[in-house]
Fold this protein.
Amino acid sequence: MEPLIQLRNVTKLFGSRVDAAKRLLQEQQSKEVIRKTTGSTVALNQVNLEIFPGELFVIMGLSGSGKSTLLRCLNRLIEPTDGSVVIDGQDILEFSKTELNLFRQRKTAMVFQKFGLFPHRTVIDNAAFGLEVQNVDKERRLHIAREKLSLVGLEGWENHYPGQLSGGMQQRVGLARALACDPDILLMDEAFSALDPLIRDEMQTELLQIQQLLHKTIVFITHDVKEALRIGDRIALMKDGEIVQVGTPEEILTHPADDYVARFIKGVDVTRVLVAQDVMKRPSPLLREKDGPTVALRVLREAGLSSGFVVDDTRRLRGLVTADELVQAAESSGRTLAVCSYEEVLCVSESTPLEELVSMIVTTRFPLAVLNDQLQLQGLVLKSSILEAMAHQRGAAYAT
Ligand code: ADP
Ligand code: MG
């Protein structure tokens, strides 16, 4: 099957120094550097995408990741800086003004987050608006509008005004208006994001039902993972103006392309990277330096450990002591652990990123000690806690 929508290397830069920004982008400079040196924003960077007829295609990503820009490039409400947008075999960037108008009216329709209804028009006149623009005669456009209103469950509400309707119902009018023009492509930008959760669920169900009947090609934008997984035939995840992964919900859940995707699906705050604080375990049992070696040995034995961390009265780390060392100290009648020689342990701060922890832990046979600014022991990072954190990221991706 041929794709209905095909984006090739679509780039969009906002700002006044676009040429300078473009050069920096070609030199692989980061968005941040480009923004600082030129004041221009890279909203889309070399986006390639194919959407097939009849697909309910979801674009998800954090706010500012470029979703709306991408959607608006599909009907040239935003002009791409570079690349091509081919729809139904035609490069729409080459359309004349007239061709573009026709294309927008006949081929596509948009549904907006804030509904975008005319408050002084009745429900049916709102639904018929697109047909009115197309100069469809009154009888026919009202007939079609009534039909679409009934499709979205608004039979009987034709002569009310938008202000008399709930948010969910207003969005149904928006949907009916979009469907009235019988477009091949529906563009929905966070269309359900302003609705209460229950209403939102209902609207998702309804959209799926309508889609079963009409088989439109729908490009649906959301920042909500649950919504994306529920309704998407395929999903593209965007980050910083780029597409990180495209796949079916199943593919994205079972084979997230990277850590970012895995954590995004899990609903973790993806703007944060995992740090020592997130993966550390409570240091238990802790040995106190003023304890005697026999007491310390007993504590370790009860915990089934062959070594333990020693802290002073203020919980500052002294080091790690092995059971062998404790036995020796006990035999030479040491009164406190201060007589012991401690093993050196690697110390990290609470904000050390997981990546660094991984490279450190392989160099030592002991856990890493996590210290705060006062050098007090806050936790331990074990090999197993790192593995667990990494497995959890993966594993959680399987759960919805
Ligand atoms: P999303 O819809 O994912 O929240 P947008 O596509 O609206 O993201 O925005 C992508 C980036 O482009 C953001 O950094 C945003 O600030 C910037 N941007 C969007 N529209 C404009 C504009 N008209 N002028 C300048 N910057 C813009
Ligand atoms: Mg947006």
Q: What stands out?
A: Residues 396-400 have pLDDT under 50 and may be disordered.
